Amino acid sequence: MGVMIDIIGSMIIRGAIVLVILNINVSLNNSLTQKTVRAALKQKTVVPAQILTDDIRLAGYNQTAPKVFAIAKSDEIQFLADLESDSTTDVVRYYLGAAPVGSTHRVLYRQLNGGASFELARDVISLTFTYYNSVGAIIAPGTNKLGIKSISIKLKIESNIQVTEGIGTDNTARYETAYWERTLFPQNL
Q: Residue 48's pLDDT is what?
């Protein structure tokens, strides 16, 4: 009889150990998924942020005409610059495309010299430009704007898959979000 109790006790302990190992395995898998999604989202945010920064810093470069922003809206910008430093004026435009049906995610496009638009980033939640004059006062958005000396950019991108947190009935699925903000002072304005 004592042997049977020992066998039943050891089975219960083994079962508990197996459950603990499975729980750890699920937790590690969720953690790995979160880290992978965050790394992909960071990369998805860094590249467009760097391109935006590089281009907008060159706004007005090598231009003899007045430093006019043809489009200076809160979610769209178009300016003149010599991006390749080849004495050729380039027209640079950034804008958000319409959200697909059933989605809040939009696409950030970059257009150069009126050509085909290049898809710079997907899953964009918001892109906001704020324009300032030489004394730091906000310039109202619009077209053909003069006197812009600095531009604040805010970019928010969301992951395209949900990450689950927790185990069992208390788990919640959510999208990861990356936010990037910078104020640029193009030297050529």
A: 93
Reported pTM: 0.78
CA-based max dimension of the chain: 100
Query: Could you report the per-residue pLDDT of 71-108, keeping only the tens digit for each?
Result: 999 999 999 988 888 888 889 999 999 887 877 889 99
Task: Say how many C-beta atoms besides its own lie within 10 A of residue 100's C-beta.
Answer: 10
Q: How many Å apart are CA 99 and CA 120, to the nearest integer?
A: 15
Distance CA(73)–CA(66), nearest Å, equals: 19
